[in-house]
Inverse folding.
């Protein structure tokens, strides 16, 4: 079946509206926090109706997931580039698998994760520790990104043991979420312009995570 030009236009228009809604929500949440925007406000900024927003997203949480995913996706482009460089030449056999997993972990050092985490902290706010909503939203978005990393690493190093890859990704994802929570607790007034001392503290926490990934609790 050949799609008509009108079908193409409708698809393009839907994609444009989807992006406009996400960007409107991101701008409002970044400026005012998670309580600083409403569906009506997002619709107004995006130039669409309230009904159109709900045609794209079931509710506010789903919209925030999309915002966080957009932020993580921007970092993912850099992560994938770093992973490409780190796996450009791999030794054969088990040594190559270890080198590929090491490149995956080290790729987190080469990108601006502090700004992404600070932006998401601003978008989601600082909920009570017992409130898992914000953590669920950010983790859902991060898992979408991890899927892309998995696909790229398998393509670059098809010999990697599948279980080793899943364990590494699970530990890396959970570890980044854990140090992200600790970091924003230590710097509760973070803005998207992350200061030097906060970046130094992020590097310290990331070093600790990498050490634990390599050596375990006994290291």
């Amino acid at each position: 079946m050949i799609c008509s030009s009108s079908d193409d236009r409708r698809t393009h228009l839907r994609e444009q509206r989807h992006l406009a809604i996400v960007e409107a929500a991101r701008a409002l949440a970044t400026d005012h926090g998670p309580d600083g925007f409403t569906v009506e406000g997002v619709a107004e900024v995006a130039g669409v109706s309230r009904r159109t927003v709900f045609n794209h997203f079931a509710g506010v949480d789903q919209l925030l997931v999309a915002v966080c995913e957009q932020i993580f996706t921007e970092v993912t482009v850099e992560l994938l580039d770093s992973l490409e460089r780190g796996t450009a030449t791999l030794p054969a056999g088990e040594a190559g698998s270890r080198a590929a997993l090491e490149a995956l972990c080290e790729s987190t050092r080469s990108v601006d994760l502090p700004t992404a985490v600070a932006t998401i902290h601003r978008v989601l706010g600082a909920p009570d520790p017992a409130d898992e909503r914000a953590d669920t939203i950010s983790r859902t978005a991060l898992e979408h990104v991890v899927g892309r990393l998995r696909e790229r690493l398998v393509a670059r190093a098809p010999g990697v043991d599948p279980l080793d890859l899943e364990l590494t990704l699970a530990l890396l994802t959970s570890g980044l979420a854990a140090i992200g929570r600790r970091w924003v607790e230590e710097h509760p007034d973070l803005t998207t312009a992350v200061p030097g001392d906060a970046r130094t503290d992020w590097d310290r926490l990331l070093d600790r995570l990498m050490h634990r990934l390599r050596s375990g609790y006994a290291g």
Summary: The first helix runs from residue 5 to 32. The chain has a mean pLDDT of 84.
